[in-house]
Design the sequence.
């Protein structure tokens, strides 16, 4: 049944790939083949193609940089869409604005804004992932977050169509936005920067902090959100799981909230580590660890 629908979709969407390994598209390097895979390099095509996919009742999943995702080792039955449209432009009006497509890389946007001597994105120097992913999860660090910079965002929803919203719309909280519930899709966004000269010290510190405190390798960054007033890394370390390994999945020795794929870890290995960390932290501290990463089932 799905195969018949796939044949129709393949005729309607150009450049669809079959059996593309998702491990090639995420920082965890875990993920089996997607039945269908589309590299969306023109964001303007997305609403129309999504409508076709939905009308055919084909399951779909949309992502950007794949730096906050655990794909299933069994892959995905349906269409996986990777947004790679990375167009951006600086607009100088009352304030300097940076308008970009959802697939624009945060680290590149930061670098480009530094070259124009603008302030605002210093914290995002070296941040993996795209603008769309950053808005979805309200990415941030060093007491800054993407929410601070949002001027307006163009979203897509099947019922509402394409519409523009302001920052208030998102109910931004720590690593959270309304999009996690509504599943609306970020097409484009405009960030408001400042003309006050890039704080190069701050941007350098952001990169140095990553190099010093975070492990290098196949990971998604912080696995769990930090519980209020505490840190997930400290809690996992306290229950003796720093360095703990299941299969080829390991809790980093350097930072216990970083789960690592040593090379051939499966999604099951990672999920077992996750269950163990949650269970031990709950048993010892009565704290429920909440995922920061997004788990995508097959
Ligand atoms: C080494 C490392 C360090 C990291 N450090 C930080 C850090 O300091 N701070 C931080 O906040 N995060 C950090 N992360 C996590 C990650 O980089 C961020 O969460 C990032 O914003 C995710 O963006 P992405 O494009 O990779 O999203 P993806 O992983 O591709 O997707 C994540 C979620 O966003 C959704 N999504 C993606 N694009 C869109 C869109 N256009 N519209 C709607 N939904 C969308 C997806 O459906 C998915 O649910 C780190 C990750 C790594 C690997």
Sequence:
């Amino acid at each position: 049944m799905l195969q018949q629908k796939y044949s129709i979709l393949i005729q309607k969407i150009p450049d669809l790939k079959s059996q593309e390994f998702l491990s090639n598209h995420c920082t965890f390097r875990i993920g089996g083949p997607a039945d269908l895979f589309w590299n969306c390099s023109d964001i303007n095509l997305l609403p129309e193609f999504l409508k076709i996919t939905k009308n055919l009742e084909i399951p779909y999943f949309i992502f950007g940089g794949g730096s906050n995702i655990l794909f299933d080792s069994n892959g995905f039955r349906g269409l996986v869409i990777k947004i790679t449209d990375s167009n951006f432009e600086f607009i100088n009006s009352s304030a300097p604005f940076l308008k970009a497509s959802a697939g624009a890389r945060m680290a590149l946007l930061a670098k480009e804004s530094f070259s124009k001597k603008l302030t605002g994105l210093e914290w995002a120097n070296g941040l993996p992932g795209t603008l769309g992913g950053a808005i979805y999860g309200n990415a941030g660090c060093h007491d800054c977050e993407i929410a601070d910079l949002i001027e307006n965002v163009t979203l897509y929803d099947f019922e509402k169509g394409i519409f523009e919203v302001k920052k208030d719309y998102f109910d931004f909280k720590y690593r959270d936005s309304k999009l996690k519930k509504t599943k609306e899709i970020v097409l484009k966004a405009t960030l408001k920067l400042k003309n006050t000269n890039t704080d190069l010290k701050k941007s350098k510190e952001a990169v140095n902090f990553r190099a010093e405190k975070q492990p290098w390798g196949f990971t998604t960054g912080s696995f769990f959100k930090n519980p209020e007033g505490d840190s997930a890394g400290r809690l996992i370390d306290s229950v003796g799981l720093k360095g703990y390994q299941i299969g080829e999945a390991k809790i980093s020795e350097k930072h216990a909230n970083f789960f690592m794929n040593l090379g051939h870890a499966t999604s099951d290995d990672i999920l077992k580590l996750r269950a163990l960390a949650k269970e031990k932290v709950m048993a010892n501290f009565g704290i429920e660890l909440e995922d920061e990463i997004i788990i995508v089932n097959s």
